[in-house]
Amino acid sequence: MAGEGAMKRVLSVASEAVPLVKTGGLADVVGALPAALAGQGWQMRVMIPAYPGVLAKLAPAEEVWKTADLGGGPARLMLGSVGGVEVLALDAPHFFDRAGGPYADMWGDYGDNAERFAALSWVAAVVARDGVAGWRPDVVHAHDWQAGLAPAFLRYWGVAVPSVMTIHNMAFQGRVGAAKMAAMRLPPEHFNREGFEFWGDISTLKAGLMAADAITTVSPRYAEELMRAEFGMGLEGVIQARAGVVHGILNGVDTAVWDPETDPEIQPFSAAKFSAKSRNRKALQREFHLDVPGPLAILVSRLTPQKGIDLLPGAVADFVAAGGGLAILGSGDPWAEDMVRGLAARFPGRVGVKIGYDEGLSHRMFAGGDAVLVPSRFEPCGLTQLYGLRYGTVPVVAATGGLADTVIGASPATEAAGAATGVVFHPVDELALRQALRRLVTLHADRKAWAAMAKRGMKAALGWEASAARYAALYEGLIAR
């Protein structure tokens, strides 16, 4: 363990991390935390699988651990760094050297995902127990179901290294049949309600929630919501039972990557030079073939029911009639992709759609949009609204999770106090979204007040400093305890 006054060590275990591999916001968080925690006196190493291309980005990398058999093939841990982040990449070709994505290929989820990520968690626990190349963590921080067995193995083995389990999205629970127990190296004596058993199946997320010394969620509101059945998705009882160790800590954004003054994808602007944002708006309309006289909204999202995508058809017509327009970037369920294409066909020149994901385009959209729509039914934290605030693109969000924690809704009281930073609506249904868009049109018409609200959001503290301090304090408390 780290000595008195030494840099303390934490092993962060996850299935993805920027800049190596990303499918969602989890990767942004895992990639940003090491630099943020360094300022708090913590050395964080990130352990992820060595998917194709990962080792090349870490070159030169050093082998620090190996085994002849990790669930059916040899494996080794390679230590390298990228972008200032120290990475332990688990090189197990039989599990991770695949042409598809991290979790699935064109035919669907990999049938052995349970074994793949159980192996990742098992190796993380070995590192915590034994150390590698003279490095042993003081704390293990596991992210989502893919790493949920890391705290569990530590508890089952009696390893005195405290652990933190972070829920980025309770919807994904790592649930598989009990027949996989042996292949996942799980001890049968813990197949019970106090362990990893969940309605007759295995849940790796539940395993982590039951075993971890502390549980965090990515916003305070989400921590409260998870105690209710509509958000807890069957695990609300676990969160209620462990409420004393549950902490809601907001995500931040990488303010160096998301900076409208230095972003290489856009024409720079700032709160002090807000009028320069209009050049990005014109460029965005050209890119999406739009001609919008009123507020130009953007939507950058997975196209799924969770994100409220199905609410758009009934809400957009009035918005367009009032002069608004919408640029959409995303991919997801086939029906949702067809639906947004249908909106573009129905409202040519006012609704534009690009299916897929393009990081550069997303930056241009945040720079050029007047508002960003986030009509999610649940949202653990959300980064989209934070990017919107950072770029003076006013968020229109549902009153849930991190959206409610980060956006101050326009109301007579907040406007009189000069505090509003966006539009917040509830409940999450078609009528409420339609009313929110009507409110957006009204607010946008007062150009002076609109600019003031947008600039207020740009000045908000959205980086990782405060959140990193809370994580550091949590780690310190676990070590002291």
UniProtKB/TrEMBL annotation:
* Single GO MF annotation: alpha-1,4-glucan glucosyltransferase (ADP-glucose donor) activity
Question: Which reaction is catalysed here?
Answer: [(1->4)-alpha-D-glucosyl](n) + ADP-alpha-D-glucose = [(1->4)-alpha-D-glucosyl](n+1) + ADP + H(+)
Which family is annotated? Belongs to the glycosyltransferase 1 family. Bacterial/plant glycogen synthase subfamily.
InterPro entries linked: Glyco_trans_1, GS/SS, Starch_synth_cat_dom
The job of this chain, per UniProt, is described as: Synthesizes alpha-1,4-glucan chains using ADP-glucose.
- Domain (Glycosyl transferase family) spans 286-455
Protein name according to UniProt = Glycogen synthase
EC number(s) for this protein? 2.4.1.21
**Gene Ontology annotations of biological process type:** glycogen biosynthetic process
Whose protein is this, by species? Answer: Rhodobacter xanthinilyticus
The positions annotated for binding ADP-alpha-D-glucose are 22
NCBIfam families found in the cross-reference section = glgA, PRK00654.1-2
**A GO term from the CC aspect:** cytosol
Q: Which stretches make up the Starch synthase catalytic domain?
A: 9-240
Query: What metabolic or biological pathway is this protein involved in?
Result: Glycan biosynthesis; glycogen biosynthesis
Q: Which UniProt keywords apply?
A: Glycogen biosynthesis, Glycosyltransferase, Transferase
Q: SUPFAM superfamilies, per this entry?
A: UDP-Glycosyltransferase/glycogen phosphorylase
